[in-house]
């Protein structure tokens, strides 16, 4: 019996999930939320599993999860030859998926008032479609 392996993560976990698509042959699909691995850890151009990635347009973690990092990731994934999607959510900042009261409060205190339930629902639906497609 074979088992499909999907990997997902947020922030550092997002970067590590992309790294897993490069470094761990058993990975069958990846969904990453706002995080890109350093090229020293894992070059996304060498990804071996399909990668879907989600970023907030207003994310200001430069070089890690800002729009420039997202677009650079997209270019590297193109080179990899694996199926990929990179989604950028307008008006959303880092950690926009965290709808816990603590997460919402933390973002507000950091000047990131992004109460965008529609973006969260869209990202979740994309996540579910991706994992269902590649893991079943």
From TrEMBL:
Name of the protein in question: Uncharacterized protein
Organism: Pistacia integerrima
Classification of source organism: Eukaryota, Viridiplantae, Streptophyta, Embryophyta, Tracheophyta
């Amino acid at each position: 019996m074979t088992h499909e392996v999907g990997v997902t993560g947020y922030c550092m976990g997002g970067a590590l999930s992309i790294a897993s698509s490069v470094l761990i042959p058993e990975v069958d699909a990846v969904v990453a939320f706002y995080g890109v691995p350093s090229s020293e850890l894992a070059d996304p151009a060498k990804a071996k599993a399909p990668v879907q990635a989600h970023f907030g347009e207003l994310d200001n973690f430069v070089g890690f999860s800002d729009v420039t990092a997202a677009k650079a990731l997209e270019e590297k994934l193109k080179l990899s030859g694996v199926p990929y999607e990179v989604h950028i959510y307008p008006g959303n900042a880092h950690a926009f998926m965290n709808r816990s009261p603590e997460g919402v409060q933390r973002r507000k205190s950091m000047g990131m008032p992004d109460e965008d339930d529609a973006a969260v629902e869209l990202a979740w639906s994309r996540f579910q479609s991706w994992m269902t497609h590649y893991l079943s």
